[in-house]
What does this fold into?
Amino acid sequence: MTPEDSVLAACDAALADGDVVTDPDRLPSYQRDRSTGTPAGQPIGVVFPRTTEQVAAVMKAAHEHRVPVVPRGAGSGLSGGSNATDGSLILCVEKMREVLSVDEINGFVETQPGIFNTELREHVAKHGLWYAPDPASKDFCSIGGNVNTNAGGLCCVKYGVTRDAVLGLEVVLADGRITQLGRRTIKGVAGYDLTALMVGSEGTLGIVTKARLRLRPIPAPAATAVAVFADISQAGQAAADIMRVLTPSMLEVMDRVSITAVEQWRPMGLDTTAEAILLAQVDTPGDAGRKEVESLLEMCSRAGAVEVYQSEDPAEAEMLLGARRMIIPALEAQGDWLLDDVAVPRSELARAMREFAEIAQRNDVLIATFGHAGDGNLHPTIVTPRGDSAAAERAMKAFTEILDVSLACGGTVTGEHGVGSLKQHELFRELDEPARDLHVRIKEAWDPLGILNPGKSLPRW
Ligand SMILES: Cc1cc2nc3c(=O)[nH]c(=O)nc-3n(C[C@H](O)[C@H](O)[C@H](O)COP(=O)(O)OP(=O)(O)OC[C@H]3O[C@@H](n4cnc5c(N)ncnc54)[C@H](O)[C@@H]3O)c2cc1C
It folds into this structure.
């Protein structure tokens, strides 16, 4: 028997009927995530464990026979993190979607990893509680994927990213051992913070089989404010000014290219002449909240906004938020697209946005810039005519130049989508030599045979 056959046989023995798939017609659905420009290889099969013990059995067999394993949540990733590599086994947690318990007194939920973010939010809402991290993909991304990419979202500007919500994790290690990381308490400093190390590790250190996530009381309904700019860098300046003195519960930016793409895809009366729109929400209740909105709009006017208003109509507010969440599918419909994800210190937002526009001009490509302005996290997305290979080459050049700008601004090569295979060769540009060495040694300690998600995140594997 080949090592691959031995692993598949062990999976067949450990998993339920139908939970090991090798049918070539079904494999392509699990071969890649939503990114473009990332390689995807041919897997030997996909397994759908339902319990931690089944995950452990799969990993034990893979470890024994040195077969690479690609962990997969819902495949909504944008960096190629869950793309198959040749000869790998895809371990998909989509059948592990049970909420195990909600602890109302201590304010946390324990859940299996395959549940969608929105499903979890709906579940805890029945207990009067709120799970804060809300990626724009919340309706179709899994909690396990969120943990492994340290996903951000629209509310994160006030309530923190996934890492801030993770209290503990159950992890199956590369050799099949099961470990419980983290704690049930808000405070705790015993040992190294291995929970935090797992968050954002992109499936390269272990398989998350359970997450204990911090919950909050449901926030008050938010007021929505809009500022329209004739110059994108003014929008960046306004976002930086706002964040110096206020804590809005959302502060998003959409530039003209993004607004136009949404309007062409789903016409909703957006102002396509605006160079940029800042979309903000404030959930501070009462008079204090009203004053915050006023002061936020005043700062936008001072930064140069040509129009500012508070949206009083909840339906209009929902429409604007919907427009923001629709940008990626709207750009997908425009042509070939290559999405970047960078974060810069907020003081550099205006510069970064201006320089992205210059990159678009210089390389003769369309760049849509949108994202979580309050966090300094932008998604400049390069759109080119479908199938135009010369334009695709210019897009790749623009992609690298965007990363250059981010690093020159003191920023990072990925704010929330992860390194994956898309930026595997960019990661080490950001790390100094001792940090690179530590990364390599951490990977060797957790996964000595290098079987977990090879070809992702770190350049050496
Ligand atoms: C339209 C759209 C909007 C988006 N908006 C946002 C946004 O606002 N914020 C944001 O952060 N992201 C956003 N994303 C990106 C994506 O949804 C997130 O990265 C999400 O966290 C991925 O979850 P997933 O379940 O789809 O994971 P996958 O894509 O399946 O996997 C992502 C990574 O996690 C690993 N992984 C998954 N599950 C496990 C597990 N149980 N154990 C170990 N490793 C695992 C994989 O190996 C891979 O490296 C968006 C994507 C789309 C398409």
Summary: The mean pLDDT is 96. Residues 389-408 form the longest helix (20 residues).
